[in-house]
């Protein structure tokens, strides 16, 4: 006699700084007692994690790896959970996170302005931490780019019509955060100029673009700067932005949080 093993809670992928501690969770149900065993995979090598036989796998993030959980019953039936990715950002310290971080997306890499020749590749990149790992959606001039849902926006052969103001939204079950808005100009090979940027600066369009996307009667725009040309880096502004963001959301505001 045997009965199906049903996984009722799958583990979820996360994106965290090095040294961050958390737990991967897996839950299953069956008519018999169950046993759990976690496995990890790194650089195509899959191995059983010694002693990892609980429903929760406690991890202190050290390197990016894949994880899965095997569930057995007394009849030797077995099922495996989904593979999930623990993405570890080695160059990001835990100090970037707010003290009461609940896993909401934190932007750690903003795209940069691009000038691209017609027919050449266009690439924009961003990154965000979050628990669960954030999903991504790119926008151009306030319009959703349906097929650009990864950290990297890639267009093989750029056209003039690809010019515009780009930004990306990172979101998970705890909320969403937006990258900086950046200008992309696609044209023929640029001629030497006097050194002045002929594009409209991204910061001039950024606020208008974000307000257009999040149109509501109560909007709060929070900007935290902690990188200064002639001053040591500060951490307090980053923490302040997140604390104020939580407070304003409780008061019914739509909040746009930008760093640097």
Automatic annotation (TrEMBL):
Record carries keyword Disulfide bond: yes
Stored PROSITE patterns: CASPASE_P20, IG_LIKE
Cross-referenced PANTHER family: MUCOSA ASSOCIATED LYMPHOID TISSUE LYMPHOMA TRANSLOCATION PROTEIN 1/PARACASPASE, MUCOSA-ASSOCIATED LYMPHOID TISSUE LYMPHOMA TRANSLOCATION PROTEIN 1-LIKE
Example GO biological process: proteolysis
Keyword tags: Disulfide bond, Immunoglobulin domain
GO molecular function terms noted in the UniProt entry: cysteine-type endopeptidase activity
Ig-like domain residues: 3-81, 105-185
Record-linked InterPro entries: Caspase-like_dom_sf, Caspase-related_regulators, Ig-like_dom, Ig-like_dom_sf, Ig-like_fold, Ig_sub, Ig_sub2, Pept_C14_caspase
Residue ranges constituting the Caspase family p20 domain according to the UniProt record: 216-260
Protein name listed in UniProt: MALT1 protein
């Amino acid at each position: 006699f045997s009965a199906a093993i049903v996984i009722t809670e799958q583990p979820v992928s996360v994106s965290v700084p090095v040294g961050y501690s958390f737990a991967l969770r897996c839950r299953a149900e069956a008519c018999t007692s169950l046993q759990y065993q976690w496995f990890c995979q790194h650089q195509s090598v899959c191995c059983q994690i010694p002693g990892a036989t609980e429903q929760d796998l406690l991890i202190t993030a050290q390197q990016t790896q894949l994880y899965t959980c095997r569930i057995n019953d007394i009849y030797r039936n077995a099922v495996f959970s989904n593979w999930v990715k623990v993405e570890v950002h080695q160059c990001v310290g835990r100090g970037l996170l707010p003290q009461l971080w609940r896993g909401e997306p934190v932007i750690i890499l903003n795209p940069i302005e691009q000038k691209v020749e017609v027919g050449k590749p266009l690439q924009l990149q961003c990154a965000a931490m979050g628990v669960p790992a954030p999903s991504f959606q790119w926008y151009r001039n306030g319009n959703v780019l349906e097929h650009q849902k990864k950290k990297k926006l890639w267009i093989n052969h750029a056209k003039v019509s690809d010019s515009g103001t780009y930004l990306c939204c990172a979101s998970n079950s705890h909320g969403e955060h937006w990258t900086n808005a950046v200008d992309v100009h696609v044209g023929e090979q640029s001629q030497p100029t006097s050194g002045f940027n002929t594009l409209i600066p991204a910061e001039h369009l950024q606020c208008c673009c974000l307000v257009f996307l999040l149109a509501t009667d109560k909007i709060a725009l929070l900007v935290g700067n902690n990188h200064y040309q002639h001053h040591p880096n500060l951490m307090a502004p980053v923490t302040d932005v997140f604390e104020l963001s939580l407070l304003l959301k409780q008061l019914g505001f739509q909040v746009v949080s930008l760093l640097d």
